[in-house]
Specification:
By secondary structure, the chain is of the alpha/beta class. 32% of the residues lie in helices and 16% in strands. It has helices at 7-24, 80-92, 108-117, 139-153, and strands spanning 46-48, 55-57, 61-62, 68-70, 76-78, 97-99, 126-131, 160-163. The strands form 3 sheets. The protein has a 4-stranded parallel beta sheet with strand order 3-6-7-8, covered by helices on one side. Strands 1-2 form a two-stranded antiparallel sheet. Strands 4-5 form a two-stranded antiparallel sheet. A hairpin with a 5-residue loop joins strand 4 and strand 5 (76-78).
Length: 173
């Protein structure tokens, strides 16, 4: 079976998926009225990571933007109920790769991702987060951010750890 997909087919598939996800996150909780065709449903295509054998969905879920609401003190916070709905929809349609970072939404994204995925078996999805230390480039600061991500996401392992920001720092030893 040929696992390659061309750009046109990718855009058709991802556009339909984005439209479907957008309909879940309407501000009034109702699906958007649209004349666009319904999302194509079927089996999500998976790609095998040759380095470790992970079977990762062709479409990953970038978690830099989540729906926001104002809390009782007027502060904007992530609408966890909507995030849960969006992740449930994505999981139901075969998305198993979730990309977050400590810097996303002032540190709220990792927590929201962890909460939304907590009801699923840990081996049913992959989490990617990042070293995004934009102010403390020290080894200690980087290690703290790394360890804090486990607490924020509420997981005992991270599948993919990416460099969000790279600063050359020379260490003694």
């Amino acid at each position: 079976m040929d696992n390659k997909i061309n750009r046109r087919d990718f855009l058709k598939i991802s556009g339909a998926g984005a439209l479907a996800l957008a309909s879940v996150s309407c501000s009034d909780g109702k699906k958007a009225e649209s004349s666009a065709p319904e999302a194509v449903t079927g089996k999500m295509e998976l790609r095998t990571n040759k380095a470790n054998g992970d079977k990762v969905s062709l479409l990953g879920y970038g978690c830099m933007r989540w729906p926001m609401v104002r809390n009782e003190s007027g502060k904007e916070v992530i609408d966890q109920e909507k995030v849960n709905e969006m992740v449930d929809y994505a999981m139901a349609h075969g998305v198993n790769y979730y990309d977050t970072a400590p810097a996303y939404l002032q540190g709220q994204s990792e927590m929201a991702v962890g909460k939304a995925l907590s009801k699923y078996p840990r081996d049913s999805y992959y989490i990617a987060t990042k070293l995004s230390n934009f102010s403390d480039y020290s080894k200690e600061g980087s290690m703290k951010m790394y360890h804090d991500s486990f607490d924020e996401i509420k997981t005992d392992y991270i599948d993919y750890y990416l460099l969000h920001n790279f600063q050359t720092v020379y260490y003694d030893g």
